[in-house]
UniProtKB/TrEMBL annotation:
It comes from Cyanistes caeruleus. Inhibited by L-aspartic acid. Its EC number is 3.2.1.31. The gene is GUSB. It is an enzyme of class 3 (hydrolase). Homotetramer. Belongs to the glycosyl hydrolase 2 family. InterPro entries: Beta-gal/glucu_dom_sf (IPR036156), Galactose-bd-like_sf (IPR008979), GH (IPR017853), Glyco_hydro_2 (IPR006101), Glyco_hydro_2_AS (IPR023232), Glyco_hydro_2_cat (IPR006103), Glyco_hydro_2_CS (IPR023230), Glyco_hydro_2_N (IPR006104). This is Beta-glucuronidase. The lineage of its organism: Eukaryota, Metazoa, Chordata, Craniata, Vertebrata. Residues 176-273 form the Glycoside hydrolase family 2 immunoglobulin-like beta-sandwich domain.
Length: 596
């Protein structure tokens, strides 16, 4: 749960080298450290870095009987972190992209002054058992490499940015506090039920009262106790963007916990909506939902994967301009700030774990599996109450044809469903339909393909036959609805060629059109979505197929549209207007006017 209380921001961090042999560097937080300086060795640095900062704590945080509980929280730090406060280790955490925190009350309240020194050691090394996995390769041929030379190998296609990527906050709670809330919703025509469960820590003699307010601030339901239901008459349902004239309707659930002497309050936004999957459809509030959206990355010039508010808001404006109703958090959980806006705007999310590039046989072993289960626990705990999240994706393009993949994915998917029985679970595959050993366990088939790009490069004419066969083979085998979870072509902005040649803007457009004609046939049957690869160009490792990164964006890295963006925009608005007519549910006239 994110802090909703007395919070202070920690800023102005410094990275210092491990043995303090080099200069201390001014390092902004949040940001990746890679692109901040002019030092190429820091850009590709693998190993330990250190951050340190001193902050003054308010005296009222350190005194009182009982004194408040003081918590230090990291939105994310990539990859492995150890944190000390005033020289005392308070937490260690494995994995980027997800939050972790530490109760530092005893450390700071035991110190004589209010100055608090926060030290973080961070290591970005990826091994076969991390998520994502990687491996370190030592180059021992002295005729070809300098002494002690090694490289970090990964099997994913984005730059392994590292650093403290999301905000670091200090906040307080009472000694007895609300630790977790779980909310699920059901609805029929005129009544909705909000089932809730509240976990309180630090006191057994707690009384809890809950009230649910609508957007006008009117209390529409109340309840008492740690487990129960709130009944809402004539509910305003949470609808996706472009599926309703008032998308993203959120109620506000206020939970008051009162123990003998203190009281904790937490306010949680609640969207009332249901999700169901049939053999041919994805239903939101009982109506067929078609994913017309994008895959993204957290990626930008200079800050790398560091949280960037202006960029986040710009991206939501572009998504709405495009008529996109959804995205997948390829290939790791995105910042909570992004997820909050999805809830508010009604952008539907397939929430993906960092399980990308699971290719080595050793990455399917028990050690990796246990870590993957723990990551799913962290992800579900963080995002389970978000109405925008309609499905979990546990991985992207693993080697799911390998024999151990069957047990691995059966276990990860079953565990995720046990943690959250209310949502479907999938993983994204590029394996052959006849060989994939994980697909039997998913609710929705998510398939990536790059016909005319990686397969038969330059041959746009193969797309209809290959894409049709792809869909028919998967559907015949599993009778589950299918999302085209990736398709795309690189284009260098400003590069033109007609007839279209690879890497030109025209080729990217032509590839899209060829895919779309097949989507239009199959979406009448069982294809329930299309997510372009990628929303924007993004940085990757250097390589012979990457020119300053992956150029499959329909926007540049600086968020300027390529020609393909206009093709997609026409299509998405057309689909949105069709489906809002079909479901007899008025789309936003203002949005329609913007498009025309
Ligand atoms: C894929 C991956 C994605 C890559 C993309 C590409 O299949 O899922 O991470 O970036 O292909 O452009 O190669």
């Amino acid at each position: 749960m994110s802090p909703g209380r007395d919070a202070g921001f920690a800023q102005r961090w410094y990275r210092r080298p491990l043995r303090q042999t080099g200069p201390v560097i001014d390092m902004p937080v949040p940001a990746s450290f890679n692109d901040i300086t002019q030092d190429p060795s820091l850009e590709n640095y693998i190993g330990w870095v250190w951050y340190e900062k001193e902050v003054l704590l308010p005296l009222r945080w350190l005194q009182g009987d009982p004194a408040p509980r003081v918590v230090l929280r990291f939105g994310s730090a990539h990859y492995y972190s150890i944190v000390w406060v005033n020289g005392v280790q308070v937490v260690e955490h494995e994995g980027g992209h997800l939050p972790f925190e530490a109760d530092i009350s005893s450390v700071v309240q035991g110190s004589p002054d209010t100055l608090c020194r926060i030290t973080v050691a961070l290591n970005n090394t990826l091994t076969p058992h991390t998520l994502p996995p990687g491996s370190i390769q030592y180059m021992t041929d002295k005729s070809r490499y300098p002494k002690n030379y090694f490289v970090q190998n990964t099997r994913f296609d984005f730059f392994n940015y590292a650093g403290i990527h999301r905000p670091v906050v200090l906040y307080t709670t009472p000694a007895a506090y609300i630790d977790d809330i779980t909310v699920t919703t059901t609805s029929s025509d005129s009544v909705a039920m909000v089932q809730y469960q509240v976990a309180v820590v630090g006191s057994t003699a707690n009384s809890l009262s809950l009230s649910l307010r609508d957007q006008e601030g009117k209390v529409v339901a109340t309840a008492d106790g740690p487990v129960g239901e709130l009944k809402v008459l004539n509910p305003n349902l949470w609808w996706p963007y472009l599926m309703h004239e008032n998308p993203g309707y959120l109620y506000s659930l206020e939970v008051n916990g009162i123990s003998s002497c203190v009281c904790d309050v937490y306010t949680l936004p609640v969207g009332i909506r249901t999700v169901h999957v049939t053999s041919t459809q994805f239903l939101i509030n009982g109506r067929p939902f078609y994913f017309h959206g994008v895959n993204k990355h957290e990626d930008a010039d200079i800050r790398g994967k560091g949280l960037d508010w202006p960029l986040i808001v710009k991206d939501f404006n572009l998504l709405r301009w495009l008529g996109a109703n959804s995205f997948r958090t390829s290939h790791y959980p995105y910042a909570e700030e992004i997820m909050d806006l999805c809830d508010v705007y009604g952008i539907v999310v397939i929430d993906e774990s960092p399980g990308v590039g699971i290719k080595l046989p050793e990455s399917f072993g028990n050690k990796s599996l246990q870590h993957h289960l723990a990551v799913m626990e962290e992800l579900v705990r963080r995002d389970k109450n978000r109405p925008s999240v309609v499905m979990w994706s546990v991985a992207n393009e693993p080697a799911s044809e390998l024999p151990p993949a069957a047990h691995y994915f059966k276990t990860v998917i079953a565990h995720t469903k046990a943690l959250d029985p209310s949502r479907p679970v999938t993983f994204v595959t590029d394996a052959n339909y006849a060989l994939d050993r994980g697909a039997p366990y998913v609710d929705v088939i998510c398939v990536n393909s790059y016909f005319s790009w990686y397969h038969d490069p330059g041959h746009l004419e193969v797309i209809p036959v290959q894409l049709t066969a792809q869909f028919e083979n998967w559907y015949k085998t599993y009778q589950k609805p299918i999302i085209q979870s990736e398709y795309g072509a690189d284009s260098v902005p400003g590069l033109h060629s007609d007839p279209p040649l690879m890497f030109s803007e025209e080729y990217q457009q032509a590839m899209l059109r060829a895919y779309h004609s097949i989507f239009d046939k199959k979406r009448k049957e069982y294809v329930i979505g299309e997510l372009i690869w990628n929303f924007a160009d993004f940085m990757t490792n250097q390589g012979t197929t990457r020119v300053l990164g992956n150029k499959k964006g329909i926007f540049t890295r600086q968020r300027q549209p390529k020609a393909a963006a206009f093709v997609l925009r026409d299509r998405y608005w057309k689909i949105a207007n069709e489906s809002s007519l079909k479901s007899n549910c008025k789309g936003s006239t203002q949005d329609k006017r913007v498009h025309n």
